Amino acid sequence: MESGGRPSLVQFILLGSSSVVTAVLYTVYRQKARDAQELKGAKRIHLGEDLKSILSEAPGKCVPYAVIEGAVRAVKETLNSQFVENCKGVIQRLTLQEHKMVWNRTTHLWNDYSKIIHQRTNTVPFDLVPHEDSVDVAVRVLKPLDSMDLGLDTVYEKFHPSVQSFTDVIGHYISGERPKGIQETEEMLKIGATLTGVGELVLDNNSIRLQPPKQGLQYYLSSQDFDSLLQRQESSARLWKVLMLVFGFATCATLFFILRKQYLQWQERLRLRQMEKEFREREAQLLSRAAPEDRESLKSTCVVCLSSPKACAFLECGHVCSCAECYQSLPEPKKCPICRQEIARVVPLYNS
User: Fold this and answer.
1) How far is CA 183 from CA 96, 113, 304, in A?
2) Helix, strand, coil percentages in the chain from 3-state DSSP, rounded to 5
3) Cα–Cα distance between 341 and 235 in angstroms, integer?
4) Could you point out which of 5, 166, 280, 325 has its C-alpha 20 to 30 Å from the C-alpha of 305?
5) Taking the CA of residue 55 as centre, how many other CA atoms within 13 Å lie in the half-sphere pointing to its CB?
6) Chain segment 184-233, per-residue pLDDT in tens
7) Beta strand pairing status for 194-204 and 177-190?
8) HSE-CB of 220 using CA atoms within 13 angstroms
9) Is the pTM above the cut of 0.85?
10) Cα dihedral sign, 71-76-82-83
């Protein structure tokens, strides 16, 4: 707390930072909770022979937010894995990720750091079909890369460590970065994989398609079943809620601390003003009762002991109110008895 009684800059920064973080966490929590609630209200539809009749009876031949589960089937061509034989799919993602150690100048520790240096995603049109071969119905999946949870399986992963000479090692220590290597990964959505789709289900002529929903609803293509997907979204919302409450409590505690310090400072100022008023009244009484020849000596006496003459000036406030003995007996940190400002230095006074 500053001497003027105002909150310090550090306290303002802490309060502002904690308030901003709480507001951001609240926004994320509200979004997560809304997504979980909307997902919970999605209509579950069985992928069977009666699917077309259900959509035909729906308004506009459309279910705005539907849940459907089926097996992945390619429409025409398929994608072959570059590293695994006889592994076919409809979505293929190839990733090169750099791993290195970076020196933290604050903590004086080496920290792991990774960065994607190249990523390519290939897709081909695919359908969701029933697991039973006897049922002849298919749902075309549109814009799969727009989904929130694309259920890709890692089919290949290999780490290529960096080869370094002694000169390279010295240079890396000087620069503060030590390369560890490159990780190569291939992920695929394989043929026959079970996929849970949540989106807009539309009957267009004689074909059925699953596409990103409107009105800000989330689009999901997940390898999990619907109950697991819903549970995960609700758990995520609860986690953000806990984080929001923790930072909200921290904000309230910081605000309470600042207000309490302000209140105590206000009480201290009232007490000092009262003491100064009583001192002035007492000094006036002594001056009024004293003989004329004693009044000048009373005005120059120490305000603490009221006996010894004033012998020092306090800086930076400039008050001359104490003798040297009473100044030495002031508790640390030494403050002026008149204004309670901290004494930076003392200038002794000499009577000539």
Assistant:
1) 6, 13, 76
2) 40, 30, 30
3) 54
4) 5
5) 28
6) 999 999 999 999 999 999 998 888 999 999 888 899 999 888 999 999 99
7) unpaired
8) 27
9) no
10) positive
